[in-house]
From TrEMBL:
<feature type="transmembrane region" description="Helical">
    <location>
        <begin position="279"/>
        <end position="301"/>
    </location>
</feature>
<dbReference type="InterPro" id="IPR011701">
    <property type="entry name" value="MFS"/>
</dbReference>
<keyword id="KW-1133">Transmembrane helix</keyword>
<feature type="transmembrane region" description="Helical">
    <location>
        <begin position="160"/>
        <end position="181"/>
    </location>
</feature>
<feature type="domain" description="Major facilitator superfamily (MFS) profile">
    <location>
        <begin position="8"/>
        <end position="424"/>
    </location>
</feature>
<keyword id="KW-0812">Transmembrane</keyword>
<dbReference type="GO" id="GO:0022857">
    <property type="term" value="F:transmembrane transporter activity"/>
</dbReference>
<feature type="transmembrane region" description="Helical">
    <location>
        <begin position="47"/>
        <end position="66"/>
    </location>
</feature>
<protein>
    <submittedName>
        <fullName>Major facilitator transporter</fullName>
    </submittedName>
</protein>
<feature type="transmembrane region" description="Helical">
    <location>
        <begin position="78"/>
        <end position="97"/>
    </location>
</feature>
<feature type="transmembrane region" description="Helical">
    <location>
        <begin position="247"/>
        <end position="267"/>
    </location>
</feature>
<dbReference type="InterPro" id="IPR050189">
    <property type="entry name" value="MFS_Efflux_Transporters"/>
</dbReference>
<dbReference type="InterPro" id="IPR036259">
    <property type="entry name" value="MFS_trans_sf"/>
</dbReference>
<keyword id="KW-1003">Cell membrane</keyword>
<feature type="transmembrane region" description="Helical">
    <location>
        <begin position="342"/>
        <end position="365"/>
    </location>
</feature>
<dbReference type="InterPro" id="IPR020846">
    <property type="entry name" value="MFS_dom"/>
</dbReference>
<keyword id="KW-0472">Membrane</keyword>
Length: 424
């Protein structure tokens, strides 16, 4: 890997790492802010999920900005909103201000994933994108590890507010590094006005192939991140009976497993394609295994907890391969909007799922701060049913992907891209 692509990978991965830490930091903060503010499960779910609402709400304009101004400037600038948001959250003494802070954080990091994928698509051949996208997700997954045992340990000697202000500094540093050192590449395609670029987003939303590619992955990713960033800890304590430090350790195991899964599936995808299994089908198999893992957890299969939650992490991130499938269907000047549109839907679902789980849990009365197992099983059972329904749509025969090539850049040229040649 030459120096420029390596720089692209490292800098944009750092941005996504920050995004991931913000995503799950309330997992460690939850017991503390719940006691301090007297929150119910529904209140906690709403507060935490506002990150995802802000993230989702910014996706469409973020995609347009990425395609118009490029990943470097947009990511560096937007991260300053995230720094302001975590500062507001850490200084707040009421739920209202904390909600504003979470919303700002979500808006600020909304471009991190889409920018990383767009920057990678600019500097790497499409055949390597499944692996490179997986590596970015793995670096981000370190954030999922950090909000487990490491954060729990830090909170034994530092307040959650002090952690917030440390995150302000970290975010500003990453923004500065991106601004100063991330390379830029001009698109060969003429950049239209912002209004014209929003029309390109509308074409993506009207694309049957887009919805076919994203059908299963948006639901599985929504469930995975909704649970990982908040409710996994409650499940481990309330249903599995783990002590807080043991539950935090399993959250870190899940994070490490997700990192391994992202890299492993990304590397294996190319090998499977050479053996005749398409990236679309390979992604579907991984997501099906994720659903199976959830069923084993719910049924309390007689397997080690570490193994079950490692499998949850390994298969939970496989839906990320859908971004690489999108990159093969849409032309380069639409990749930013394609990525952010898919992310928009995922994060709207995370927002809804986190609130939904909290609402379902709140139907039951907690005893000693713990909700009964039946409450958790009911909530997760609904999520599994939604994933099974989306899986049916994903596997139903369809002709909309027939125009998508299995390879691009020097192998097979995309027959389907002609339809987008006149879209800005």
């Amino acid at each position: 890997m030459s120096s420029t692509p390596l720089r692209v990978f490292l800098l944009f991965s750092a941005g996504y790492f920050v995004s991931y830490v913000f995503r799950g930091v309330n997992l460690g903060f939850a017991p503390l802010i719940t006691r301090e503010l007297g929150l119910t499960a529904a209140n906690l779910g709403l507060l935490t999920s506002l990150y995802f609402l802000g993230f989702a709400g910014a996706q469409l304009p973020a995609g347009v900005l990425l395609d118009h101004y490029g990943p470097r400037r947009v990511t560096a600038g937007m991260l300053l909103f995230a720094a302001a948001g975590i500062g507001v959250f850490g200084a707040a003494h009421g739920v209202g201000a904390m909600m504003v802070g979470r919303l700002l954080i979500g808006v600020g990091v909304s471009v991190c994933l889409g920018a990383a994928f767009k920057a990678l698509a600019q500097h790497f051949p499409v055949s390597r994108l499944p692996l490179m996208n997986g590596l970015v997700m793995a670096v981000g997954g370190l954030g999922g590890v950090v909000v487990g045992s490491p954060l729990t340990w830090v909170l034994t000697f530092a307040s959650w507010r002090a952690v917030c202000f440390a995150l302000v500094v970290l975010t500003i540093v990453v923004a500065a590094l991106l601004w100063m050192f991330a390379p830029e590449r001009k698109e060969a395609h003429h950049q239209a006005s912002l209004v014209g670029q929003f029309k390109g987003t509308w074409h993506i939303l009207r694309s049957a192939a887009f919805w076919k590619i994203g059908s299963f992955s948006v639901v599985t990713q929504g469930v995975f991140y909704a649970m990982q960033s908040l409710w996994v800890g409650a499940w481990l304590r309330d249903v599995s009976g783990f002590q807080p430090h043991d539950a935090a350790a399993l959250v870190s195991v899940l994070g490490f497993a997700m990192m391994a899964g992202c890299v492993g599936f990304g590397a294996a995808a190319r090998s499977m394609e050479r053996r005749g299994l398409s990236l679309y089908a390979f992604c579907g198999v991984g997501m099906a295994l994720f659903v199976v893992t959830q069923l084993l957890i719910m049924l309390r299969a007689p397997l080690p907890a570490g193994l079950l939650w490692a499998a949850y992490g390994i298969f939970g991130g496989v839906g990320i391969l859908s971004y690489a499938v999108l990159a093969r269907h849409f032309p380069p000047h639409l990749i930013g909007r394609g990525n952010t549109t898919l992310t928009l839907i995922i994060f709207l679902l995370i927002f809804g799922f986190q609130i939904g789980v909290g609402a379902v849990l709140s139907i039951w009365t907690p005893v000693g701060g713990h909700y009964p197992p039946v409450a958790h099983l009911t909530a997760w059972g609904i999520l599994v049913a939604l994933q099974l329904a989306s899986a049916v749509w994903y596997v139903l025969p369809s002709r909309v992907l027939a125009k998508s090539p299995s390879h691009i850049h020097g192998e097979h040229q995309p027959q389907g891209l002609q339809a987008y040649s006149d879209i800005e």
